[in-house]
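User: Modeling request: complex.
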Amino acid sequence: MGKIFNRTTYRAVFALGLTVLLIHLLFTFHASRRSDLSTAPSPANGAVPITPGNAAKVASAPLGTTGANPTVTTTGKRANAVLLILARNREAFGLRSSLKQLERRFNHKYHYPYVILNDEPFDSNFKRIVDQTVSGNVSYGLIPKEHWSYPPWIDLNKAAEGREKLKNVIYGTSESYRHMCRFNSGFFFHHPLLAQYDYYWRVEPDVDFTCNINYDPFVYMQERDLQYGFTITLHEFRSTVATLWETTKDFMAQHPEYVSHPNTLEWVVEKATGDYNMCHFWSNFEIANLNLLRSERYRAYFDHLDQAGGFFYERWGDAPVHSLAAAMFLRKDEIHFFEDIGYRHSVYENCPTGLTFNLQNCNCDPKRSINPQGLACTRDFLKMDPQSDFNITTMEQNVPLL
Ligand SMILES: Nc1nc2c(ncn2[C@@H]2O[C@H](COP(=O)(O)OP(=O)(O)OP(=O)(O)O)[C@@H](O)[C@H]2O)c(=O)[nH]1
Ligand SMILES: [Mg+2]
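Assistant: Request completed. Predicted assembly structure:
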């Protein structure tokens, strides 16, 4: 009996050992495949590892029960949010660069899903590159033709003349750029792939995330009832929005009930003249509440602008459109400056100016940050409310770095 028992025990121990070895090999293989995300924490205490294949399932499970992610489970919270991208097939590697950084700086701890949209179908190469870069589930979507084409009321000759007039301005002669701006102004939030989400974070190819993000900006927004978050503000080229303010004022006159009181209009209106001062949130980065854009008033505003035709006759950008909407519909304290998110798009960047934070988390030079400078409108934004959650004195104190 004792002998048989021992043999059984040996077999059981051997089988157990083999299973442990196989599991170990499986994880080693998985980790080496994803070595580009080497800073990602390994699942702790028997946690469910998140892979592109099961991320959606894990993400939709009640938080705190999956044990999937120490950061998520300790706070017990994650927002109903998505990382949103509009891109072309040829931008796959530029997007990979952005996403590698976003994953390393932030999403390896949270595994937020991605929605990636295009006016043409994504090819298998693009999908392969993205799938191998991210830790969250990815959905690829095609934009419906009616959201990326001329509406019937647009005079195509007048649109062609409009492009000719702007030939000296960046993207002034581009038709696709105009479709992109119109889509980002009025349609992306209608895409069925976004229907289930409340917040989005817009990401573009070829941008840089230059600091660790040590908390969840979506949850930060949700807990404070914030509606719109930005990292960079700029002045728009006047000729691209020549009649945007007039058209916006018409809208406010027709629909005074849609304008909030208090609002943030003083940030965009020149005191002396009452004109638009060209200030806008640079929308290539934005973290915002989709329900703001889905609201009746935002949709009415977009329809009003779209009827006027300025997306095609001029070159209205989604940045000034979102910004004027935020100015009309939001209080200043519903808009947040993510000063601590290091972000670079082309020549402009936000680099945290607090030296201690910067040294510990970033690889950007605060002297290059656009926000303390006159080209941006960030100081004016912050000065509207000296009691705001961002401490302007921090910025003032740190300016000597410049
Ligand atoms: N699918 C698709 N995406 C586009 C098209 N044009 C622009 N985009 C995307 O829309 C976003 C904004 O376009 P950008 O070309 O970056 O425009 P921008 O940020 O104003 O200008 P730069 O980045 O300085 O060139 C990016 O995510 C692009 O990938 C297009 O024709 N089709
Ligand atoms: Mg861009």
